[in-house]
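Minutes, project check-in
Item: structure for the 496-residue chain
Input as provided by the requester:
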Amino acid sequence: MSPPQAIALSLVSHTNVGKTTLVRTLIRRDIGEVADRAHVTEEAEVHLLTGTPEGDALRLWDTPGFGDSARLLKRLRASADPISWLLRQVWDRFTDRPFFCSQQAIRNVREESDVVLYLVNAAEDPASAGYVQNEMEILRWIGKPVVVLLNQMGAPRDSESQAQEEASWGRHLAAYVATRSAIAMDAFARCWVQEDDLLGVVGSVLPEAKREAFERLRSAWRARNLAVFDAAMGSIAAQLAAAATDREILDADADTPKQKAGRWLASFTRGRGQPAPVDERAMNTLAQRLDAALRENTDRLIALHGLSGRAKEGILARLAGQFEVGRPADVAKSGVIGGMLTGALGGLYADLAAGGLTFGAGALIGGIVGALGASGAVHAYNLAHGTQEGRMRWSVQFLTQRFAAAILRYLAIAHYGRGRGEWVEGEYPAHWGPLVAELTAQHREEIEAIFHAADQQESAEEVARQLQPLLATTARDTLVRLYPKSHTLFGAAPRV
């Protein structure tokens, strides 16, 4: 095994392109000052990205922007001249502080860095960015391997569009300095799997003597990110399992006789009327608990990804179609009306009295009505379905929708850079929804089976244990489809 190594990356760019913002995103904490003006960073600052038990260290330097790159290049080329030294150390220091800091930072990069990360504004056309040629000459003067990063790319794009953007910048810059293809690394919208791609390119341009140590550092970086991924999937699974096993008891005695009669009549049209007050109360309670759990889970994901801020409050929309109701049949009422019913008709009546939401299962019990009498048949129905008390729960269809929604919520947080500020939920990129729907559909039968089983009094812990690998597989396949190179990170090819 090679001895421990300290490896330094230096982040450089034209001024006000977003270096400090990207550093905050990469190290998962706030450093320096971020502002929409030139020369915010005046001194080169070093930050630890990761380390290993063997003693290796990967450090990242945040440097002042180039500013007047033509003038800076001229100063650097004449740096051996005594007069130029006097201008730099005395005149520039006191008359043009930003220019002086830029010169000092470039020398620091030349002396300290193993690889230079050159950050560009991808919103600009590479051919029309006039400062690029001079800055490429500065990078040539530094004499270190260069990896180009594309910032300010906007919302996450599909893999094909991103690859085209990277290739365009890569071709343009290759005319000036030897570099690998440009890599998208937007401080606002990068995903953590892209960081592994960056480290892979960095490792390929390092001197041979440092590559073994760097691979240890890359493994440590991977292990940390994969641990966050696993923890996120576990947290989401626990939240979905809690929703799947959540129940609300329906206190029918709280309804007035008029409300009970209206509910019973509405059952003949299979619930097309307005929900009864007791149902409405149960829906409100379930929705409030789900909303609180979603916000708590979102806050957990935010913290896991090194972000700040919290999910905003907002009660979920309550749609009656998202609930399943198991209501006990009215035994007293069945003694009056059930005396006129026999056989399957008795079962049909039990089904209707239970709210018309049991999918006809009551008809099976109707076959023994002759032996038990109408009231006895209704008691058997309630016992068979565990509805001695009326219950309301989330429907399997709704829970399956929440599975896909949880993957989208995870993607949004996994792409949110800390340099962007506190977490704010926004619109998902258009290509995410269909992709997540497609990959979720591959596991629909398994997902629905788990949620159906959750209605058989399975514990939330057991439901979460079954859900977590499905969540992890779907999230992993989604990330690999969005970023094909990440299949090496997960050790699996994408599902198609």
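Outcome recorded: The chain has a mean pLDDT of 75.
No further action items on this chain.
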